[in-house]
Amino acid sequence: MKIRILLVAFIVSFVLFSYSSAFSIFPLRYLVTLDPGSAQIITVDVSNNENKTINVVPVVLGAEQNNAGQAVFSSGLTRAETWVKPNINSFELATGEEQKISFTITAPSTASPGSYYLAVGAQASSAGGQLGLDSQLLTLLTIQISGTAQEQLVIEQWQTNNFFVIKKDWNFHLNIKNAGNVEVPYSARLVVRNWRGDEKTSFDLIQKNNLLADTWKAGDYSSNVDNLGFWPGIYQAQVVVSYGLTQQMVTSMVYILYVPVWSWIVLGMAILVIIGAFTSQYKFQM
């Protein structure tokens, strides 16, 4: 029995690829669920708010997240772009007019279950003029193919910039990948333990966020690690990533040698005392 994937659509701050006052588009977001081999038609409304006639060309683009979690729209990002076809190649829109553009979405019978992210919309220019990216408006389109949802987040990289530290400001690099077929919520927490495994401190690195299917999130994090105690030692820095509707967890760990400044001063004084003792003993023997 097929399970329909019910997920929250990918939310972005702006669904406009590049804003223009020449025309407007509605709606700003679509969520479509299809069975493999089925089809559905969606429509977007394009309005000309400029005081001149414009030429409009429908567009279909792929959508993805970059490492900073921002939306990126471009062609050739996903095979699902070939599933969406506009009903018209181009048209002219006079001042104050509105026209609907239909897009037919056809999911192939071989489509894998999961979420696919695209953008449909229109690109406009003055009638008879050149098309410009500065006059392109998009509607975010999330296509969900019914089937079994697979939630799988993996830690590609977890490392510290310095194994040897003298301060409590520690720097880390974390790279995670959504290897599943659906968008997943996730968060990350840093847990610091001493060499015996006793927890010394913990805090959030990443609060709740979302990661699209088959995308990465990489980032550098600086943390002020308190409660380490007075003495130097080797510490375990473990990242715990919780993800998915069932709050699964993946972890990774690195080791850090913490030697505070005072211990170097004490070590230097001890070396001086030892040198002084050997010098005194040598003079006494002479």
Notable features of this structure?
286 residues; mainly beta; five-stranded mixed β-sheet; 1 helix; disordered N terminus
Main pleated sheet: 6 strands, mixed
Shape: elongated
Strand content: over 45%
What is the radius of gyration computed over CA atoms, rounded to a whole number of angstroms?
29 Å
Per DSSP E runs of 2 or more residues, the count of β-strands stands at 18
Number of helices: 1
Give the structural class.
Answer: mainly beta
Order of helices and strands: EEEEEEEEEEEEEEEEEEH
The stretches of 5 or more residues where confidence is low (pLDDT under 50) are: 1-20
- The chain-level mean pLDDT equals 83
- Helix content percent band: under 10%
Ends apart, CA distance between termini: 95 Å
Topology (SSEs and partners):
Elements: E1 23-26, E2 29-34, E3 39-48, E4 54-65, E5 71-74, E6 84-86, E7 91-93, E8 98-106, E9 114-126, E10 136-145, E11 153-160, E12 164-165, E13 169-178, E14 184-193, E15 199-211, E16 216-224, E17 233-243, E18 248-258, H1 261-285
Parallel strand pairs: 2-10, 12-18
Antiparallel strand pairs: 1-3, 3-8, 4-5, 4-7, 4-9, 6-8, 9-10, 11-13, 13-16, 14-15, 14-17, 17-18
Describe what this molecule looks like in 3D.
This protein is mainly beta and 286 residues long. It contains one helix and 18 strands. The chain has one helix spanning 261-285; strands at residues 23-26, 29-34, 39-48, 54-65, 71-74, 84-86, 91-93, 98-106, 114-126, 136-145, 153-160, 164-165, 169-178, 184-193, 199-211, 216-224, 233-243, 248-258. Strands 2, 4, 5, 7, 9 and 10 form a six-stranded mixed beta sheet that branches. A five-stranded mixed beta sheet has the order 12-18-17-14-15, with no helix packed on it. The chain has a four-stranded antiparallel beta sheet with strand order 1-3-8-6, with no helix packed on it. Residues 1-20 have low confidence and may be disordered.
